[in-house]
Amino acid sequence: MTTQRIVLPRKGYRGWGPRLLILAVFLYVGVLVLAPITALVNDALQKGLPAFQTALNTPQFWQSFALSLEIALGVVAIQAILGSITAWVIVRHSFPGKSIFNAVIDIPFAISPVVVGYMLLLAFGRNGFLNPLLAVFDFQVAFALPGIFLATLFVSLPFMIREMIPVIQNLDRAQELAASTLGAGRWTTFWRVIFPGLRTALLYGVALTMARAMGEFGAVLVIGGGVQGRTATTTMYIFHALEERQYVEAYTAAIVLGIGSVLIVSLADLIRHRTQH
Amino acid sequence: MKAILPQARLKARSPELGLRATSFAFILVMVVIPMAVILQDGFKEGAAEFWRQVTLPVAAHAIILTLWTSALMTVINAVMGLLTAFVLVRYAFPGKAILNAIVDLPLAIPTLVTGVMLVILYGPQQALGLFLNQELGFQVIFAPPGIVLALLFITFPFVVRTIQPVLLDLDQQQEHAAATLGARRWTIFRRIIFPALALPTFSGSLLSFARAVGEFGAVVIVAGNIPFKSQTAAVYVLGAVESENRLAASAISIILIAISLAVILFTNYLLGRRRGPV
């Protein structure tokens, strides 16, 4: 999946055929994407601003939001470093089994989040095969923060790597060779020649990873268990609010989370658009 | 992604080898080991027990429901994704930039939020949901149509964004030549444009299918958890985990992993034949 900005050429059209096609696309996007978004915003507004504010003033909501943010930032930091290294290895190295390695990276994208959480539970849970080891260090993973962190790390794995690969492929290697001919060390070459070319993709990868990490639900639900205040992320807060029929709280939190994620990605998109022109 | 991969022979440079080891360890610990664990667990009681868990009526129904809703979504997504990409690349019209931005929205919106939005729009207590249910006898929420809608929303960008770059790179001279030779618009599309777009359409659709089979956040909100009616495989796994039914959870998880893995390897193989690895 490429998420690179695509330059759209402007072309005219004649006749009714194209008009009908354009209309069909607008109708489809309107019904499928815009109508649900409008419904959510409209519903929250109907209940009025005071209800909205009361829902926002719930301490549990902000607790869960802070927790999600904390986890997402940690995950983003790890993906930025290890994801970039992995993308680099895929593009620049050749080794046996490379195409399989390349395919394995896409697995977290397709595996069910519930299965991800369950896999971690099998490894780190009460009867998990790593449990004896964890017991020695008195370190709890399942139903605790480290488990949620690992689950989020798993589901957001492909985003940074897939964003970096095409950019690393397009780097001009002549510049790197020139730098080293002129006596630049590896470190200097990296910071002065390679890194500037990767900066924008890195930023976009960070944004996508961040949005994915903030929004993760299934895996976190299974491994985290949702201990109120301690392991409840924003998505789990929404889920529990729905179960307890506290709809205003749930919808308000959903709007905040949705707007936050869209803002992060749009901002990165905007910056990328700027730097390209 | 048409850049030719520089197949640099790696000289024994220690920092580069360090990078390689780091990335191998990362993928091994994060992806390979957890999958091996679940595979071992699912077959612990033997293949017969595994098969018994998969063919239990509740489990089988959940798997089949997951497969047909995902397949239906994939067909709709392939057609509408192709149409959307075509319109975005080939025509100029007011609101085009906005349309192009909207295509990316589902990528940013958390799937749980998607589920909440659909329930608000089509839920049994809402005006539209009530109308569809009472006037047309069509139930969306807590039923398969809701699942298909949620999956369509989530995977909408995949097909569009796979086709768009290919369509942009397509040489239009052939089309002009065909038009000069008297071919009609539909013939040009069928004989020249579509053959070039068949592979990206197919691979984008497969990707959306793989993603849809495992989808949970939106589906659990929209479909609920009604066995034999709206319970998908992923939701069934959650129930099995919660009731500590480890055999069932592992068996259905393996089925879900196998489907994703098969689809991803097949897609990579198809694309790899065309343009080499990566």
Structure description:
The complex is a heterodimer of chains A (277) and B (278). Chain A folds into two domains: 16-46; 58-276, MetI-like fold. Helices cover 77% and strands 0% of the residues of chain A. Chain A contains 14 helices and no strands. In chain A, helix 1 (16-46) packs across helix 14, helix 3 (59-92) crosses helix 8 (145-155) and helix 10 (173-181) packs antiparallel against helix 11 (186-215). Chain B is mainly α and 278 residues long. Chain B has a single domain (41-275), classed as MetI-like fold. Helices cover 78% and strands 0% of the residues of chain B. The termini of chain B are close together. The model of chain B is unreliable at 1-12 (pLDDT under 50). The chains are: A mainly alpha (277), B mainly alpha (278). At the A-B interface, helix 1, helix 3, helix 4, helix 5 and helix 6 of A face helix 1, helix 3, helix 4, helix 5 and helix 7 of B.
The helix fraction of chain B, in percent, is over 70%
- What is the radius of gyration of chain B computed over CA atoms, rounded to a whole number of angstroms? 23 Å
Characterize the largest beta sheet of chain B: strand count, sense, and whether it forms a barrel: none
> Average pLDDT across residues of chain B?
86
Strand content of chain B: under 5%
In the predicted model, the low-confidence regions of chain A spanning at least 5 consecutive residues are: 6-11
As for the number of domains of chain B, it is 1
Question: Radius of gyration of chain A, Cα only, in angstroms?
Answer: 23 Å
Low-confidence stretches of chain B: 1-12
Q: Count of helices of chain B? A: 12
Order of helices and strands of chain A: HHHHHHHHHHHHHH
Distance between the termini of chain A: 23 Å
What is the assigned CATH homologous superfamily of the largest domain in chain A? MetI-like
Question: What would you call the structural class of chain A?
Answer: mainly alpha
Mean pLDDT of chain A: 85
Content of β-strand of chain A: under 5%
CATH architecture of chain B: Orthogonal Bundle
